[in-house]
Amino acid sequence: MDQSLSSQFVNLLAALLLLLAFAMLAQRRVLTLIKLFAWQGAALTASTLIMAYATGQGHLYYSATLTLLLKVILIPWILHRLIDQLQIRWDIETLINIPVTMLVGIGLAIFAFALATPISEMAGSLTRATLGIAMASVLLSFLMMIVRRKAVPQVIGFLAMENSLFFAATSATYGMPLVVELGVALDVLVGTFIFGIFFFHIRDEFESLDIRHMEKLKED
Amino acid sequence: MIDAPAIAFQILQSVFVVLAAPLLLGWANQCRAWLQNRSAPSILLPYYTLAKLFHKDAVIAHNASAVFRVTPYVMFGCMWLAAGIVPVLATDLPFAPAADIIALVGVFALARVFSALAAMDIGTAFGGLGARREMLIGFLAEPAMLMVLFTAAFISGSTQLNTIVETLGHREFAIDPSLAFAAVAFLMVLLAENARIPIDNPTTHLELTMIHEAMILEYSARHLALIEWAVAIKLFAYMTIGIALFVPWGIAEAGNWGALPLAFAALAAKLAFAGAGLALLETLLAKLRLFLAPEFLSTAFLLGVLGILTHFLARG
Amino acid sequence: MEIALVLGFPLLGGLLLALFGHKRWAPELNALMSLTTLVAAAALTRRVITGGPMTALDEQFFVDPFNVFLVALTAFVGFTTALFSRPYMRIEEHHGRLNAARLRLYHSMYQLFSFTMQLCLLSNNIGILWVSLEGATLATVLLVSLYRTPASLEAAWKYFILCSVGIAQALFGIILLYFAAEKVIGPGGTSLLWTHLYAVRDQLEPTVLSLAFVFLLVGFGTKVGLVPLHNWLPDAHAEGPTPVSAVLSGLLLNVALYAVVRSKVLVDGALGRNFSGGLMMGFGLLSVVVAAFFLSRQKDIKRMFAYSSIEHMGIVTFAFGMGGPVAAFAGLLHMTVHSLTKSAIFFTVGHATQKTGTQNMADIRGLIEQSPAIGWGLALGSLAILGMPPFGVFTSEFLVLTTAMHEHPWATPFLLVALGVAFAAILGKVQPMVFGETNLRRLPHAPALVPVFVHLAIVLMLGVYIPPYLVEWYRQAAAFIG
Q: In which residue ranges of chain B is pLDDT below 70?
């Protein structure tokens, strides 16, 4: 696989990542959100593998395996079990309606692209366009966390943001040192566990996972 | 410059499209029947329907104006013009400079405006309902369509469909993420504009859920036949626009008789695939509630804009 | 060797208390582990002071005067807080707000929290710094929600979401930093080592670095509690158990600010001091002013002191933003005295709220009558935090103000007004709490007030006389900061 073909594949996977971020923004059902998150992890793994093959950096293979295990298999499984035990299906409302959210998302994507252009000129030629896409995905996941009313989509937005950051790392810098990636992965895993424990506490106390129950502490 | 083979090509293409459009519709219906485990109607059924309609006597309301009478012809004419412009079989047709992609969108818009006016002409409730819904869909779908076309235009550097097809068809194989976005957006717009599921159900008989069908409730006989034919040609035209933008290999140049069989074969294969794909989508998806249609179309618009942005990002 | 001990003891403590944290002697074990950490930290400090900066374990750890002073401070306050938490948590259990299982969680998380903070301070690898700071957040989330009331769940949720999002921004900043470093140093683990980055800091690409610093400041600044990213802070401090509030206020904010300052030093090499300095001064000033005004409207005592923490962190950020030896010295001194004073205040507040059963300031009255130690502790602590001479806070605030007047006179009115507003507010609210008619109940265990007075004594001493070795220590650290 020569340089330009693998570069195109990576670009395509980056575009897929962005598409999935938008799709998550527009989704109403929590189960589909988890599936989309798993697909994002798969796209991430694929792009890391392609980069490992194209640049010959061995540690990216480990990185890709770690991503596969954690973000495609383990975390979606944990989330599925959580959903089953908490019996959540739908997220009925968002703070602003979906077409407006999409438009705000487009604005953020443009902003991220504009921000990334001067930097990506210095990037390795393999992955020039992907830094802007990674930043856009980060901002979109952030938007998703803000506009959601229920707790689980907020958490999935947070995990999607970690995905995009990881993609930014692999695209801009051919991957962070392995020890850092292990640490980040550990944090993400522990964080998911704690979120899970948290959901149960919240559900026990409030009988629902609607965030509006948790807006009572305000300035008086 | 008047070029006899080119004109022959042009006439051939226009006639071919008009004749082949109902066949595409019949093929899509067959595929859908197979997928739904029913026995399929004949693939020529749309032709029989058209023939039947042409035999009948037209019945028109007393208060119908000239707009009502003229609209079927306008619609058919617009679609025929569109079919002549889009490089279905060959590029560089003499008619092609008549309209670039923006004008093409305008031609479709003209047909839509006339049909909406005709729907409101008689003054029935369903006509007005259908007209308003159709304009809502069109209002949202048109920008999306334009964005998709602009993506292709940016990549090939021109808004002439000919140039686009030549550039995209003859460059080396490249996976372009902007075209990927544009393709998904185009698919969504195709479904919306042609009144297919998930926006509108073409086989429904429930007037309150109709969008396109509600506009043509008043038509009968030859008028209805022309409108149905125009709808079939519109679907055909949209599919061939999609083919020209995203899978343009195999389209001949005008005047090149040798490449014609290949062009036919390629087109037949692509359209067969497209028809089956359409049937699959219609079987898998459910019709969206009307208030969700703007979401669907804003997603399409978004993807179109993303396609343009990604193109600029990837380029530099 | 000392580094291994400083890290190993809390980790060991965490494991032990995960097993035995529900036993009756668990609080003593907690205090013991913190004491051993303190001893190890003292040994490390002595070594660095005499021997100069050192790296260890294949350059993964780096100790210089700047972070070793924070290591010592963290270990010290960790120890005194563990001492305070002994009777405090026993009283809480007695009152029925906690059970043995939750105490087990509390004790093990406390030690793990200590571990992550020390790891953050000692690590030379910026990536590991990030990982441990996120780890510190994770360790404390379940602690903030320990009481399982609706308010505490909300506070913990906000804390978790806001801090995690913030720190994800910091991760992006680190990625950008790594990206710039890779161009100069080359790929691989060494590009994230602070010592290496420091050596080449003027060769790093300015555009990338400016963007990286913004992300790092926003990200780590969320954990420092800079306005407008501070929303989690008042809730988390108010709803968690008091020892947790004390360590959050006294220690975690410092560690996060440490991360900001390390990043600042790198960025200054490429961009000069003005860019990062301007941003930090802006955020710092905003924090001071906004916090002072919010402070005056609070009814809950812990929220009020939480806003006070935001205000003081704003002052320190402002000081580091100004730069220069005097301002950096003042910033370091302020970090120290604020830690000590704020944790002392939280100790007294904790016992005061236990005596009255409420955190509402209107309901706490007459502390000095029934429990003179608590009353005086709160009174002196408040005076100290407000910057009254001869306490140490006055010294550092004075230095900050004079430097500001010299170099950035436009900022001085804001600072003075904010400090004045905070002064009036806190004094006005504390005075009726300490004096007045009492309505308190007796505590089942004797309160731990020795830590309070030890802290206040140190702060007093620092106000009056800073030992020369401490001055030298601060000067060296300030020189590193630039």
A: 1-2, 172-175, 253-256, 314-316
CA angle C423/C429/C432 to nearest 5° reads 130
C188 touching A, CB under 8 A? yes
Q: Token pair for residue B205?
A: 């008989």
- pLDDT higher at A185 or C171: C171
Cβ separation of A8 and B306 shorter than 8 Å?
no
- pLDDT(A1) > 50: no
Average pLDDT over residues A179-185: 75
Partner A, chain C 140-169, Cβ-Cβ below 8 Å: 141-142, 145, 148-151, 153-158, 160-161, 164-165, 168
Tell me the pLDDT tens digit for each residue of B123-158.
Answer: 888 889 999 999 999 998 999 999 999 988 888 888
- Asked if the Cβ–Cβ distance from A179 to C189 is below 8 Å, we say yes
Instruction: Determine the residue among A93, A102, A111 to mutate to test chain B binding: the one whose Cβ has the most chain B Cβ atoms within 10 Å.
Output: A102
| Cα gap A118→C209, rounded to integer Å | 12
Whether chains B and C touch (3+ CB pairs under 8 A) is answered by no
Nearest CA of chain C to the CA of A2: how many Å?
Answer: 22
Q: Does residue A159 have a pLDDT over 60?
A: yes
Contact indicator for A159, A152 with CB cutoff of 8 Å: no
Dihedral sign from CA coordinates of B167, B173, B174, B176 = positive
| Chain A residues with CB-CB distance to B314 below 8 A | 11, 128-129
Residue for token digits 């992965």? A185
Q: Does A78 touch chain B (CB under 8 A)?
A: no
Q: How large is the ipTM?
A: 0.83
Residues 6+ apart with CB under 8 A from C225: C233, C253, C287, C309, C310, C313
> A151 and chain C: CB distance < 8 Å anywhere?
yes
Token pair for C268: 């200054």
* Domain count of the fold of chain B: 1
Q: Are B178 and B310 in contact (CB under 8 A)?
A: yes
For residue B314, what pLDDT is reported? 67
Residues lower than pLDDT 50 in chain C:
none
3-class SS string, B106-169: HHHHHHHHHHHHHHHHCCCHHHHHHHHHHHHHHHHHHHHHHHHHHHHHHHHCCCCHHHHHHHHH
Q: For residue C422, what are the contacts with CB-CB under 8 A and spacing of at least 6?
A: C291, C292, C295, C296, C308, C311, C386
Are C246 and C161 spatial neighbours (Cβ–Cβ below 8 Å)?
A: no
**pTM, two decimal places:** 0.80
Nearest to B314 among A11, A19, A26 (CB): A11
Asked if A217 and C156 touch (Cβ cutoff 8 Å), the reply is no
Asked whether residue A42 carries a pLDDT value surpassing 90, the answer given is yes
Nearest residue of chain A to residue B177 (CA atoms): A12
A150 within 8 A of A33, measured Cβ to Cβ? no
Distance, in Å, from the CA atom of A67 to the CA atom of A163, rounded to the nearest integer, reads 9
Residues 172-191 of A with CB under 8 A from C: 172-174, 176-180, 183-184, 186-187, 190-191
Identify the domain containing residue B199 by its residue range: 4-315
- A91 within 8 A of A149, measured Cβ to Cβ: yes
DSSP C60: T
Contacts 24+ apart (CB under 8 A), C474-477: C474/C69, C474/C329, C474/C332, C474/C333, C475/C325, C475/C329, C476/C64, C476/C65, C476/C66, C477/C64, C477/C65, C477/C66, C477/C69, C477/C328, C477/C332
3 state DSSP class of C399: helix
Give per-residue pLDDT as tens, C329-340.
888 889 888 999
Structure tokens that stand for A58 in this block? 């061995």
- Name every chain A residue with its beta carbon within 8 A of the beta carbon of B310: 15, 18, 129, 133
Distance from CA of A61 to the nearest CA of C (A): 15
Instruction: Look at A154 and C161 and tell me if their CB atoms are within 8 Å.
Output: yes
Which other chains touch chain C, taking contact as 3+ CB pairs less than 8 Å apart? A
